[in-house]
UniProtKB/TrEMBL annotation:
Protein name: rRNA-processing protein FYV7
Signal peptide: none
Biased composition (Basic and acidic residues): 66-115, 138-151
Principal location class: nucleus
Entry-linked Pfam families: rRNA_processing
Protein task: Involved in the processing of the 20S pre-rRNA.
Family per similarity comment: Belongs to the FYV7 family.
Length: 151
């Protein structure tokens, strides 16, 4: 069960309550201002001229429109930055994917070469002896591929 203070606070800290309070204060200020000008007029003092309401409203509207345009420009800039980041991220993902595919292809090629070499090196004669020809050819290929011997 909520205490009366908690219930009061729940009402007090809502958006509707705040809006109502602001409206009350605005109406109170305008009423006081109107009464003050009326009293000044009755006593014979010069009443300061007020801006026409329509002009004040147009100024407020202009300010709001300018703020909206600025906000829209900022929003457009943010959207553009977001697009650029997304594009850059997409390019990075694509580049990483290409590198991974190249790495996989390279490892497959090496694996196939090892398998071919293994098959050649494990050849046997009819009597079960290892064949020397492929082993000698393999050694020759190694020597030809090595830079120290190909000067």
């Amino acid at each position: 069960m909520a205490t009366s203070k908690q219930q009061y606070n729940r009402k007090k800290f809502t958006k509707e309550y705040k809006v109502k309070e602001i409206q009350k204060s605005i109406t109170k200020k305008t009423r006081l201002k109107k009464e003050y000008f009326k009293a000044l007029k009755e006593e014979g003092y010069a009443v300061p001229e007020r801006k026409p309401i329509s002009q004040a409203k147009t100024n407020v509207r202009k300010l709001r429109e300018e703020k909206a345009l600025q906000g829209k420009q900022k929003l457009d800039e943010k959207k553009e930055m977001k697009r650029e980041r997304k594009k850059l991220q997409k390019e990075q993902v694509e580049e990483r994917r290409k590198r991974e595919l190249d790495q996989i292809k390279l490892s497959k090629d090496k694996y196939e070469q090892r398998e071919k070499r293994k098959v050649r090196m494990t050849q046997r004669t009819r009597s079960g002896q290892p064949r020397m020809g492929p082993k000698i050819n393999d050694l020759l290929d190694k020597i030809k591929g090595d830079e120290t011997y190909t000067r």
